[in-house]
Amino acid sequence: MRKLLVVVLSLAMFCTACSTGWVLALDSILAAAAPALVNILQIVAVANGQPVNANLAAKINADATIIKTLAGDFAKASSGSSAGVCQQLQAAVSAYQADQQLVLQIAQVGDSNTQTKITLLAGLVAGTVNAIMAVIPSCQNAAVARNMKTAASYSVSTFADHYNSILLAPTGNAAVDAATPKLKLHQHSKLVRAVTFGRLE
Prior knowledge:
Blueprint: H1 2-48, H2 54-76, H3 82-106, H4 112-135, H5 142-148, H6 156-168, H7 174-179, H8 190-195
């Protein structure tokens, strides 16, 4: 019975891959990228002894949610409305990219080691915009592209590993070094981590 279930699920995933593969890829990228960007704001706040820029953190999360929603809408849109939804989706990605630029503008701290950490993390996160743009179909001939686009070869697990490696590197700033382990990116949900007693991160 278990083998049959695996086969059925595999077939279902295969049958829907052409139309939803890029949406799933986009969701997984944003699930890592948006928290990673917010984490940079938290590191800046700790290093400067100030509260986190809550407005910008909320905007990053909201813009990521809008992208996910529009991606789902675009994948299901009729041929008559798909081009319009695609343009909204690309505009939402531009807004998210602007959020990244805002983070870079305020990510300045006096401690050189922490500033290096922030710069490296920001550079890594900036690459996620290219990954997002590579996944989203072109708005030209959108009705065809939204079903044909395949997921880009972008490894979220590799991104998370690199991010966590930079994140956990000691800076010598006691407050920052105490805060960063709590900001690690996880590749699995809290439920999965709890069920596996932390063996899967």
